[in-house]
Request: fold
Amino acid sequence: MNVARFAILAGLMGLPAAAQAERRPNVVVVITDDQGYGDLSCHGNKELRTPNMDALHADSVRLSNFHVDPTCAPTRSALMTGKYSRRVGVWHTVMGRSFLAPEETTLAERFGEAGYRTAIFGKWHLGDNYPLRPQDQGFQHVLVHGGGGVGQTPDHWGNDYFDDTYLRNGHLETFDGYCTDVWFGEATKWLEANKDDPCFLYLATNAPHSPYDVAESYSEPFKNAGVPSPRAEFYGMIVNIDENLGRFRSRLDDLGLAENTIFVFITDNGTAAGHQKGGFNAGMRGNKGSEYEGGHRVPCFIRWPAGGISGGHGLDALTAHVDLVPTLCSLAGFPIDLEEDLDGTDLSFWLRHREDVPCAPVWPGDRTLVVESQRIDHPQKWRKSAVMTQRWRLVDQNELYDMNVDPGQQHDVSSRHPDVVRELQKEYERWWEHVSDRNEDYVRIVLGSDAAPNAELTAHDWHPLSGEIHDVPWSQSATIEKDPPSNGFWAVEFAQPGRYEFRLRRRPASHPVAVKATKATVEAGGVSETASVDPESGAAVVTLDLPAGPAKLQTTLTGTDGQTRGAYYLEVERVR
Reply:
């Protein structure tokens, strides 16, 4: 099937099929974390210099009206699948709502099936347990941190961006140096080792996401210029990314890979710190998490000289993260079957041509897109939403903005255009029906399978009993170290019936502390067991005989202080 697809593409390009197959391009996607549209000097930022991003901008086709979800994990799930994030189970960054449904097909799986080597370096943020890990979702080589960022609850305890311990293909490994340097350095080594094979490389930095940890040599120049914290540190992290990007692209040149590499640079949501205290936001309203433009319009540069995509011009059509799957697969020579139910549009033609080409495909700007920021356990209609056309933005159901004359979204014109409001409300209603099948369901961690008989769960992935994010201890330093008296449950599935041992902890097994509890309770699948605990032990142990199938798994530690809290870390092992 792949040979036939290559033959079709070769015919379209006027090349023999065998020659085209031999020239399959590498695909590199670089995605940074929390860097907004205005956090590049090529987009007008006068405080920040990003010469290597600027150079890529100057020689790429720029999708200048490109949109993502307003936060991390939803964007990544849409990018990976070509479907709206809620359709694939993702609408939050914690609370078990950052899990990508394993039955969905990812970019890595598509490229792997087409004969590519596949690898991820950096941030996954779509599940840390089987069957949700990147190695379960098509990546053959994996080097990642845990959770949504270095220092979050699923990450190796004590990681702080410098000389950290990460997971390489499921095994802990300690690295020297700054996190961003590690991701780019290891990605470079992997490309060098696989330079004779077609490669799909997903390089996802955790920087410049908080905490804003960076060497003073990067932040001090900004502070000396009067830039306040945390923007000075945030900008310093971006400068470091920019330097790494330059070195990485130079190495592609040295290896002879640059011309035949489809190189994509994007970010995952609006700026997190670039707008603070007088910062530059490219004239946009809102920032990370916002339904206004500054929350979801981001850079997107695509370059492939051998495929006719370069030269530094813009494509102003309304485009989005869901477009990358059909576009990259088409460019690489295996177009996705039309009957596949994707939400994205294949932009490959328009990346090579201008709008006035006769007999062209439908202009990608002639459509309606929706983004939202739910960040709760169960989605609510119209919550922090934006319905987008080339001209209009309908925000939160009733606010209307004309982007042709008001790109900063300062003037609500809904009263002057009620017909437009009604039409976009109808579009939203259709979209809501399209994306809402999973609203009340759970993407589940599978426990006790032969593929992963042992697991460590963390409070990052609790579904909170109150439904509030503040009850979810998602960060080592911000929440776990305070031992909050909160609790939640994990949505799981027991792969096999049997006896399961649960070890309840306040800290991970790698860094144990006294459990400080007198009794421990585990409830799952309608079965509950309570055990007495030595408060000075590192873990409370409870065993349960459980049936196979889906379950809500909840733990309770009754502390020596009389308070109850869930186990922030839970080891699960099928023992019989």
Observations:
- Confidence is low (pLDDT under 50) at residues 1-21.
- Residues 231-254 form the longest helix (24 residues).
- The chain has three domains: 2-352, 369-435, 445-574.
- The radius of gyration is 24 Å.
